[in-house]
Write a structure and sequence with these properties.
Layout lengths: L1 E2 L5 H18 L15 H15 L7 E5 L5 H10 L2 E6 L2 H13 L6 E5 L12 E7 L8 H11 E14 L7 H13 L3 E2 L2 H10 L3 E7 L1 H4 L1 H13 L1 H6 L3 H8 L1 H10 L2 E9 L3
Parallel strand pairs: 2-3, 2-5, 3-4, 5-6
Antiparallel strand pairs: 1-7, 6-9, 8-9
Bound molecules: S-adenosylmethionine.
Length: about 280
């Protein structure tokens, strides 16, 4: 696992409070990669990633889901509208919580979803109650990832599944350029650490879960950063960021770093699904 000691929960919260507006206007209501199989629009590709994860996790209509790191509520609202799920979303950002609640009401699913502002590493839910624990691109920000999966295993009912997408450290780290690239990504995107696919499988298995899916989606998602980098350059948003703080400028400047890290194999993008045994 690659670590970045300078990141704190306060820095992560501040980043999402501040940059949610940028994410919304540069990318859309989902703060996650797109999944491309052809020439889909970015919006379609984002929905395809959500739907592909839902399919891998075999989410049944009416499931009770927890969305850990729910952003602006994109996944929670989608699962409520298209799979009739009842969803509780958790975000560390109070701005995102308010945004997600308003958005759910706007989309007519306010009665099916609720959102909490809480730290996923401290929040608790009753044992054996969730059909699905869903988390797209949040575990990167967690400090104790093995412990998180133990808690997930506790929340899941027997037979329930955890479904995640995560930025991963590549399989060959060593001490050279790959490691340096991943460290720069962690610093620029406020991740205290990045685990590899093997790390995630290991954490899930040690929590008593049975891994059903562990897929490398890097080649399907990396167009995300080509598009985002182009949009940042064209929109002039970096100049706005300069009026705010250095961290936000660094965040935009690292878009090319993550694209290079995916292309070189220093990083991967993973989809993992694991089941709590009956
Ligand atoms: C890259 S965004 C993904 C958002 C959402 N899953 C989506 O796909 O649109 C990361 C999310 O994780 C949340 N997050 C980061 N650290 C967290 C923590 N310790 N507890 C709860 N949420 C956290 C952020 O607030 C943000 O909503």
């Amino acid at each position: 696992m690659i670590t970045c000691p300078g990141v704190t929960p306060q820095v992560i919260r501040f980043h999402y409070d501040l940059s949610t507006l940028f994410y919304r206007f540069l990318w859309g209501p989902h703060i996650h990669h797109g999944f491309w199989e052809g020439n889909e629009s970015p919006r379609t590709a984002q929905l395809k990633l959500t739907e592909t994860l839902a399919a891998r996790a075999a989410i049944e209509p009416g499931s009770r889901a927890l969305d850990i790191g729910c952003g602006m509520g994109g996944s929670a609202i989608h699962l409520a509208r298209h799979r009739q799920c009842r969803v509780t979303g958790v975000t560390i950002s109070p701005v995102q919580r308010s945004w997600a609640s308003l958005s759910a009401r706007w989309h007519g699913v306010g009665g099916q979803v609720d959102f909490m502002c809480a730290d996923a590493e401290a929040v608790d839910f009753p044992a054996d109650t969730a059909d699905v624990v869903w988390s797209i691109e949040c575990t990167e920000h967690l400090f104790d990832k093995p412990r998180f999966f133990e808690r997930v295993a506790d929340w899941l009912r027997p037979g329930g599944r955890v479904a995640i997408c995560a930025w991963l450290a590549g399989p060959d780290m060593g001490e050279g350029q790959h490691r340096a690239a991943v460290e720069k990504v962690c610093e620029g995107f406020f991740c205290p650490s990045l685990g590899s696919m093997d790390d995630y499988r290991d954490w899930m298995e040690r929590a008593g879960l049975v891994v059903e899916t562990s897929e490398d989606w890097t080649s399907q998602v990396l167009r995300t950063w080509e598009i985002c980098d182009r949009r940042v350059r064209r929109s002039g948003v970096r100049w706005v960021a300069r009026l705010i703080d250095r961290d936000t400028v660094m965040f935009f400047d690292r878009f090319q770093t993550i694209l290079d890290a995916y292309r070189s194999g220093a990083m991967q993008y993973g989809c993992l699904v694991a089941r709590k045994p009956d």
